[in-house]
Write a structure and sequence with these properties.
A six-stranded mixed β-sheet has the order 3-2-1-4-5-6, sandwiched between helices. Helix 1 runs parallel beside helix 2. The chain has four helices and six strands; from the N terminus they run H-E-H-E-E-H-E-H-E-E. Helix 4 links the parallel strand 4 and strand 5. By secondary structure, the protein is α/β, with parallel strands linked by helices.
């Protein structure tokens, strides 16, 4: 499969999983967390899809398109290994939806990162909340959920 096809599968799956998770968590109170802003495409989609919900973005340094940049008061800047514990102290276990697209192009590095960050993500998710990730995660209590029909297996994951 070409890299272009892999990218398309990931984008289609990411949109399908985010849309499904947004619908399933629509009645839950609590903030939404976007872990990793990048150029802001996913954040922009979440703003369009999750109207009326607070979306906090975790990012090391903002480099997004101006139309896809969150307001300063919704941005948590710094290393995720520092900002996630800070978010737990600030918000508690209240996040209704968490999305993470933190990996790069190295599968082994992505897996090691997912193993390291998973224990920091699980405690901030509200009961009944969902985690959508481009990488397989390693949670103690959250379990992998079925994907929506238009998602490609292995290209996006939902946990709850």
């Amino acid at each position: 499969m070409s890299r272009l096809d892999l990218f398309i599968d990931r984008m289609v799956s990411q949109r399908a999983c985010l849309n499904a998770a947004a619908e399933r968590t629509a009645s839950l109170p609590g903030p939404v967390f976007e872990l990793g802003l990048g150029n802001g495409r996913t954040y922009h989609h979440m703003v369009e899809t999750l109207t009326g919900r607070d979306i906090f973005v975790f990012e090391r340094a903002v480099a997004s398109h101006p139309d896809s940049t969150p307001p300063d008061d919704m941005l948590l800047l710094g290393d995720v290994f520092e900002t996630l514990p800070q978010a737990l102290a600030r918000f508690g276990a209240t996040a209704s939806l968490i999305h993470a697209d933190l990996g790069g192009h190295n599968a082994a590095k992505n897996d090691a990162f997912a193993r390291a960050v998973s224990p920091l993500i699980e405690p901030i998710l509200a009961k009944g909340g969902l985690m959508v990730s481009s990488d397989r995660m390693y949670f103690e209590h959250l379990t992998e959920q079925p994907l929506p029909p238009d998602a490609v297996t292995g290209r996006c994951f939902i946990y709850g």
